[in-house]
Amino acid sequence: MTKNDRANFGSKIGIILASAGSAVGLGNIWRFPFETGNHGGAAFILIYILCVIALGLPVMIAEFMIGRRSRSNTAGAYRILSTGTQWKWVGRLGVLTGFLILGYYSVVAGWTLQYIVQAATGSLTGQSAEGFIATFNGFVSNPWKPALWTVVFLFLTHFVIVRGVEKGIERSSKVLMPLLFILLLVLTGCSISLPNAGEGIRFLLQPDFSKVDSSVLLGAMGQAFFSLSLGMGCLCTYASYFRDDTKLPRTAVNVALIDTMVAILAGFIIFPAAFSVGISPDSGPSLLFITLPNVFQQAFGSLPLLATLLSFLFYLLLALAALTSTISLHEVATVYLCEEFHLARPKAARWITTVCAFIGICCSLSLGVGSNLTLFGLTLFDLFDFLTAKIMLPGGGLLIALFAGWYLDKKIIWEELSNKGTLTVRTYRLLLFGLKYVAPIGISLVFLDQFNVFALFR
Ligand code: TRP
């Protein structure tokens, strides 16, 4: 494929929304609340925001620069910008990470499909809080249902990917993102007006730094990379479709803002409701699915039709938000196979979908029939989540920051930031400082702390 044959995103707003579509997904609405709940609430959120600003933003701009400059898939990008060096492994590692994420992410995305059906048939209403928990546990441990939904979701992703970048990705993001945002606002209103919601709000706003330990730091850092789709070349791949006049720093700030706002709104939906009906905030991956039906039930219990309608719409939008994220993960691997191995797009996509379906089915089964099979005490599902979000993504981010900060020609950085000198750039020095020092040192310190290296000196 030559440069000019490559697809491109058409409009400015389309670029922001496609990138935000990748970033906003289950990471914000499902993963952020349960990680916040596991790690004690407000203090975690503050550290998370700090990670987004100090580590996420510089790495995101670096991925944008690398992608747009090379106009290539993520492995090709490093090869083109650093011919003959080993940096190409950063891109390849990214493709592998994306694979593992897509595998277990599709499982949760599949759960949203099941909940769409349940919402539409009205079977989500009329239960007690314990009833919702039992329904969820019964569903995920069912031997075939969740695995089937995982595969269905991968097929949906496959379908959009085969249709190509502009038609598939950009158009769907343009409608879905704003609609999702409005519904989240409505649900936040419902949740914070539930009885005893105050306790949940306090959990979100009153930080208790005495409980901050290394796992909180690692959790917040991993969540920042996961939620912003960073560290594996996802936004680097999208940036290879950006236009020459796309303002990279501004796009990055917009994406980070949208992503963080959605995550915090999700927190304000989940915790007031969870405290209100007595669900423990550290319920883990089930938190969203056992808490949310209570919001619909409590707020609209007397209007069953409205409850059905709103819950159906919510799960539909959640599934679509997940879809814009799985598309971005799938795209990284598909375009890698297309460009590096000269496969036709449909064929490349078929390979990726098949392998991911296999990983997905294994992860899905690991929560039910295979739950006894554990490694380091974790099920396959939890292991993939831990390995990708907490190790591979921040590790990838570290390498990306080092590559852009220390290896990449400064002229390239300046040209990409200023769109070849047509913009005045105020962020150049700050960005370079972030890439050279703040991100690499910050990520390394959290890793060292997690693996208890500092304890040796105490
Ligand atoms: N960021 C997405 C979410 O929050 C998930 C995702 C898409 C992702 N692409 C990624 C995570 C790349 C890590 C890396 O749901």
Secondary-structure class? mainly alpha
N-to-C series of helices and strands = HHHHHHHHHHHHHHHHHH
Largest sheet: none
Tell me what the CATH architecture is.
Orthogonal Bundle
Bound molecules: tryptophan
Backbone shape? globular
Task: Please give the oligomerization state of what you see.
Answer: single chain
What percentage of residues falls in helices of 4 or more residues? over 70%
- How many β-strand stretches? 0
Mean pLDDT: 92
Overview of this protein structure:
The chain is mostly helical and 458 residues long. It has one domain (12-457): Hydantoin permease (Orthogonal Bundle), CATH 1.10.4160. The chain is built from 18 helices and no strands. Helix 5 (88-120) runs antiparallel to helix 14 (304-341) and helix 9 packs antiparallel against helix 12 (248-277). The longest helix has 38 residues, at 304-341. The radius of gyration is 21 Å and the shape is globular.
Short note summarizing the structure:
With 458 residues, this protein is mostly helical. It is 75% helix and 0% strand. Helix 1 packs across helix 8 and helix 4 runs antiparallel to helix 5.
